[in-house]
Amino acid sequence: MFPQILLPLPDTFRLGATDVEDERVILTLEPTTTSALCPRCQQPSQHRHSWYWRSPADLPTFGRAVRLHMHVRRFFCRTADCPQRIFSERVGDALPCSARRTTRHTQALTHITFALGGRPAARLAFTLGFPTSRRTLLRLLLAQPLPERPTPRVLGLDDWAWRKGRSYRTILVDLERHQVVDFLPDRESATVAAWLQTHPGVEIVSRDRAKAYAEGVRLGAPGAGQVIDRWHMLKRMTETIENLLGQKRSALVQATQTLNAVAAATVSAAAIPHAPPSQPSRAGATARATAHRATVARYRRIQKLAAKKVDVAHIARQVGVSRVTVYRYLRMTAPPPLPVQTPRHRSRVQTYKPYLVKRWNEGCRNATQMWREIVELG
Predict the structure, then answer these.
(1) Can you list the positions of beta strands (E) in 62-197?
(2) Which DSSP category does 23 fall into?
(3) Can you tell me whether residue 312 is helix, strand or coil?
(4) 296 lies in which domain range?
(5) CA dihedral of residues 149, 151, 152, 157 (deg, nearest 10)
(6) Of 28, 42, 124, 248, which one has the fewest beta carbons inside 10 Å?
């Protein structure tokens, strides 16, 4: 009983020799019967053909890897109408045909890979006595069948970019269970219709505004109701409001002018003096004049070097400017004029500075209250 718990194999094999090495254990298994069942016709056969050694991996024990050394025989099938002429004796569900590891060994590796992924699972498996590569683990993971999902009652239909700007596909989501149901290879109406026809039971389809999806749902599930999803609904409302306001542009301009006139009249009634625009300072004028003299000197130096047939690149290096600047100065027929500085306009708060100073002197220290007051003044 104890060997069967540690090594769940059928009664057709028995445990023979056991070799323990530094890092692994080798268990020799020998057959106990003289016949085997043909996998095609299920008829027993005792006519041996040959034999060979099979060495699958099993679960590790005491930190050591376990390798089964099995003596497997081949038999002739003597059934007249059986297409199988030669077969190997089967071990059972514990060790599938041609498998390099037992079923429980594969299940353990699959569970580790599901939890950790490729590289972390390979490191943990090596520590536990499952020496394998990350590619093998990922291959086992991809070989697992996908879980069966019921046909959703409320289906979400949208596209997604496989390669943005080049290749797009379709994703189908169960909106009640919040689970992805399937992926379609394109965004064609025929593909959507074919999927809906093979999965009857969809009652509501939430989709975007694509005509292909609308046509696919109409063909594949004629009785299903179609609604636009939340994002496209908000986008459609925004576009509608923008179009409406665009058509009423003249009315909006007129209303804005009326509000500005009312605000100007309110400010005039409050007798708040408007501060004049600030005048350019003398220090700023002096700095601009100095910069203009340097620009004129640079212009004359470039023109003088160009008259001597000096290359543009050499001129740029000597003067310390870019070649684009050299070309721009060479196209000029006169030195660049002194730029005229327009007076800077003060902020709108400066207009109400006397009123704010007055309120401050009166003892008002609430900035929000003062802001509300000047808003009422325009």
Answers:
(1) 64-76, 86-88, 154-163, 167-174, 179-184
(2) S
(3) helix
(4) 282-331
(5) 100
(6) 42
Distance between CA atoms of residues 269 and 123, nearest Å: 82
Distance in angstroms (rounded) separating the CA atoms of residues 321 and 315? 8
CA atoms within 13 A on the CB side of 306: 16
- 160-178 pLDDT per residue, tens: 888 888 888 999 999 998 8
pLDDT digits (tens, 9 = 90+) for 341-374: 665 656 777 778 888 888 888 888 888 888 888 8
pLDDT value at residue 342: 60
Residue 115: inside a domain, yes or no? no
pLDDT of res. 271 = 46
Q: Name the token pair of 184.
A: 């379609």
- Supply the DSSP symbol for 334: S
pLDDT at 145: 84
| Dihedral angle sign, alpha carbons of residues 266, 270, 276, 278 | negative
Residue that has been written with the tokens 């999902």 in this structure: 149
Question: If we measure between CA atoms, which residue out of 288, 276, 329 comes closest to residue 305?
Answer: 329
In the three-class reduction of DSSP (H, G, I as helix; E, B as strand; rest coil), residue 27 is classed as: strand
Distances (CA, A) of 226 to 202, 204, 210, 231: 11, 6, 12, 15
Q: What are phi and psi for residue 287, nearest 5 degrees? A: -65, -40
Cβ contacts of 214 within 8 Å, gap of 6 or more: 207, 226
Q: Is residue 355 part of a domain?
A: no
Q: Global pTM? A: 0.46
Residues 88 and 28 in one domain: yes
CB-CB contact of 56 with 65 (8 Å): no
For residue 2, pLDDT over 80 is answered with: no
Strand boundaries in the chain, DSSP class E: 13-20, 24-31, 36-37, 44-45, 48-54, 57-61, 64-76, 86-88, 154-163, 167-174, 179-184, 204-207, 225-228
CATH of the domain at 315: 1.10.10
Helix axes 367-376, 353-361, angle to 10 degrees: 140
